[in-house]
Amino acid sequence: MAQVSLVVGGRSYDLACRDGEEPHLHALGAMVEARFADAGRAVGGGSETRQLVMAALLLADELSELRAGRSDPAQDELAKGLDALADRLELLAASLENDGEPT
Questions:
Q1: Residues 59-94: tens digit of each pLDDT
Q2: Which of 28, 42, 50, 81 has the greatest number of beta carbons closer than 10 A?
Q3: Distances (CA, A) of 89 to 5, 34, 53, 81
């Protein structure tokens, strides 16, 4: 049994895997780390748990699209970027609306 150390969100996780599967597990870990970073930008930081849940949802959404045969990677990335931008704009608008008011 092999041992792999993955870093997600600045934390290290030691995982066991079958011998020879280390490169694959490292690649999967890199995907999770990338989605974790995307989630952090989308939710404006937040707790590590919230970012991990959002990262899982982003990966599940991608998997769902692939299974449905509707995935276009360029359009998926554009849609994710637009969603993240919309979320940020909503946060900014809410912040501006509440300026001077107790929250």
A1: 888 888 877 876 566 777 777 777 777 677 777 766
A2: 42
A3: 37, 22, 22, 12
102: three-class secondary structure by DSSP: coil
Nearest Cα to 35, choosing from 63, 60, 12, 58? 58
Contacts of residue 10, Cβ cutoff 8 Å, sequence gap at least 6? none
Q: Report CA-CA distances (Å) from 101 to 21, 87, 95.
A: 55, 21, 10
**CA 53 from chain center: how many Å?**
8
Q: What is the pLDDT of residue 103?
A: 44
Torsion of CA 10, 12, 17, 19, to 10 degrees: 100
Q: Token pair for residue 47? A: 């707790």
Ranges of beta strands (E only) in the chain are 2-8, 11-17
pTM, entire model: 0.60
Task: Report how far residue 80's alpha carbon sits from residue 46's, in angstroms, rounded to the nearest whole number.
Answer: 18
